[in-house]
């Protein structure tokens, strides 16, 4: 369900623990694929760049740099050294060459994932438009909720929660 709709329909906002959230996102790829097939549109794969080892290392170095710049004063010296060592290994430099100026450069690296956000949003928008054109937005909501029940098998739901709620 598009974020714009989720944010206005408390019925579809359910609290999940961290691991259930991860599990739900994994299962959601199944229904997204089904919806994109129904609407004859393609979803941009936001994880395609994670398959490139160098990209993964570069994004890891960005994360490590952010940690060092923001939280160095809270970290033990041993951890600081290990983080700098990992960054140094990624860029084939000595750990004592990992200066703040280098870390500041690393945190400015742009994620390739975000280049695809507008394409992904366009695909999601096409799905919503497909159902709106057919006056079937409630069908989309019902399909999504039923998918959630089938895949997550929740033990606890609010008393008035319903797959067919059309608010």
What features would you highlight for this structure?
167 residues, 59% helix, mainly alpha, 2 domains, exonuclease activity
Topology:
Elements: H1 3-6, H2 18-38, H3 53-71, H4 77-91, H5 100-106, H6 117-133, H7 137-152
Helix pairs in contact: 2-7, 3-4, 3-5
Quick structural gist:
This is Exonuclease 3'-5' domain-containing protein 2. Helix content is 59%, strand content 0%.
Can you walk me through this structure?
- The protein has 167 residues and is mainly alpha-helical.
- It has two domains: 3-47 and 114-152, no CATH class; 49-112, no CATH class.
- 59% of the residues lie in helices and 0% in strands.
- The protein is built from seven helices and no strands.
- The model has no long low-confidence stretch (mean pLDDT 83).
Helix content: 55-70%
> Which runs of at least 5 residues are low in confidence (pLDDT < 50)?
none
Tally of structural domains: 2
The largest β sheet comes out as:
none
Task: Compute the CA-based radius of gyration.
Answer: 21 Å
Specify the overall morphology: elongated
Strand content: under 5%
Structural class: mainly alpha
What is the strand tally?
0
What's the pLDDT, averaged over the residues? 83
Query: Terminal Cα separation, in Å?
Result: 14 Å
């Amino acid at each position: 369900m598009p974020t714009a709709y989720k944010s206005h329909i408390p019925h579809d906002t359910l609290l999940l623990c961290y691991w259930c959230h991860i599990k739900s996102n994994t299962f959601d790829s199944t229904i997204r694929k089904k919806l994109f097939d129904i609407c004859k549109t393609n979803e941009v794969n936001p994880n395609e760049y994670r398959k490139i080892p160098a990209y993964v290392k570069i994004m890891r170095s960005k994360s490590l740099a952010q940690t060092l710049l923001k939280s160095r004063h809270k970290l033990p010296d041993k951890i600081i050294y290990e983080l700098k060592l990992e960054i140094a290994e990624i860029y084939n430099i000595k750990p004592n060459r990992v200066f703040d100026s280098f870390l500041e450069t690393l945190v400015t690296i742009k994620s390739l994932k975000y280049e695809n956000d507008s394409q992904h949003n366009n695909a999601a928008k096409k799905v919503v438009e497909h159902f709106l054109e057919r006056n079937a937005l409630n069908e989309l909501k019902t399909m999504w909720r039923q998918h959630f029940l089938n895949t997550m098998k929740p033990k606890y739901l609010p008393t008035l929660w319903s797959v067919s709620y059309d608010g």
